[in-house]
From TrEMBL:
Its EC number is 3.5.1.125. It comes from Achromobacter animicus. This is N-alpha-acetyl-L-2,4-diaminobutyric acid deacetylase. Keywords: Hydrolase, Metal-binding, Zinc. It is an enzyme of class 3 (hydrolase). Its cofactor is Zn(2+).
Length: 329
């Protein structure tokens, strides 16, 4: 039986209604002897539910099954945003994925980031940081590999993506020094992420697939035997989508009601109509056709109809073999 301790921390989050208010961030440390230390994190954006539900399940299950090493569980690392159901922190509007800016921390969101940099990242060798589309996007459930800056290619990354068990994997490049990938890179922490579901909803099946993916990653990292429920994907089965290229993202260029004509996972041709923007309250405004910016698979779709200039409506990229990942470095 593993040794289990709560390592919650709290940060100041003053509002006009509560001068000395603090918000508690729940952390569970599960230690099962020598071995690697791994952090499983969700809720960097408070409205992304699948990882939060999955890690909360592991809060109960993992102490019984962890065989080696140490795991830190943070099911709702931006607890204030999770409680409010919002992407950003209500008290200061901060985006935790842009808040790793070093000391001195200014306000609630940067204080969480500073605490993670001081207390957590120096103590772990790997992390899985689960995201989803949140309220305003919906993703084809995918593992995510983010290259920050000039990070060198690490062959453990495709192995972790396979261990997560999903047939789709998204590739991003990150250049913002305040992001979680940047902080992980500074600390030499191996980081896999995920984009699972989205919209204002979630489901048990998505949470279960996320939990199995996290267990698969812990098995890959040597902390437990591969669970029966985990099904590592074979190389040939994992499709890689590079969403970093400008042509991968279609944004609205004016306001309107987005009526998509495609679904997640659908293959589209370049310049294929993928939907339209309409303005029902102004019948004289003609529908504006929307065309796919490139050929590929629809990986991300906006689930909110009313849209405005600059909103991301769709992401599409060609499916590449996972073993082409090294060529992105
Ligand atoms: Zn997110």
């Amino acid at each position: 039986m593993a040794n289990v301790t709560r390592e919650d921390f709290s940060v100041a989050a003053a509002t006009n209604a509560s001068a000395y208010r603090r918000v508690t961030i729940p952390v569970l440390r599960i230690e099962a002897g020598p071995g690697p230390a791994v952090a499983l994190i969700a809720g960097v954006h408070g409205d992304e539910w699948e990882g939060q539900a999955a890690i909360l399940d592991l809060w109960q299950q993992l102490p019984e099954i962890l065989q080696r090493g140490t795991v830190y569980l943070l099911p709702a690392v931006n607890a204030e945003a999770s409680l409010a159901g919002t992407r950003l922190s209500p008290s200061d509007g901060g985006n935790l994925n842009r808040a790793f800016l070093g000391e001195p921390a200014r306000g609630y969101t940067e204080s969480i980031a500073a605490a993670l940099e001081a207390r957590l990242l120096p103590r772990v060798q790997a992390m899985v940081d689960v995201h989803s589309g949140g309220a305003s996007l919906r993703y084809l459930p995918s593992s995510v590999i983010t290259r920050y800056g000039n990070d060198a290619y690490d062959e453990r990354l495709p192995a972790l993506a396979r261990a997560f068990g999903l047939p789709d994997c998204v590739f991003f490049r990150g250049g913002e020094a305040g992001s979680m990938p940047a902080a992980a890179s500074r600390h030499g922490v191996l980081r896999l992420s995920a984009e699972i579901g989205g919209g204002r909803e979630t489901s048990q099946s998505l949470a279960d697939s996320c939990r199995d993916g996290l267990l698969g990653c812990l098995a890959e990292l040597g902390l437990l035997s591969r669970p029966e429920s985990a099904h590592p994907a074979q190389d040939a089965q994992v499709r890689l989508y590079d969403l970093d290229t400008p042509a991968a993202t279609l944004r609205a260029r004016e306001s309107g009601v987005f009526v998509p004509a495609v679904e997640l996972g659908q293959s589209v041709a370049a310049q294929q109509p993928i939907g339209r923007l309409i303005e029902p309250a102004r019948p004289n405004v003609p529908p504006r056709p929307l065309l796919s910016p490139q050929a590929g698979t629809v990986v991300c779709l906006r689930p909110i109809a009313r849209s405005d200039d600059g909103d991301c409506l769709l992401q599409v990229a060609p499916a590449l073999p996972l073993d082409s990942l090294a060529s992105r470095y």
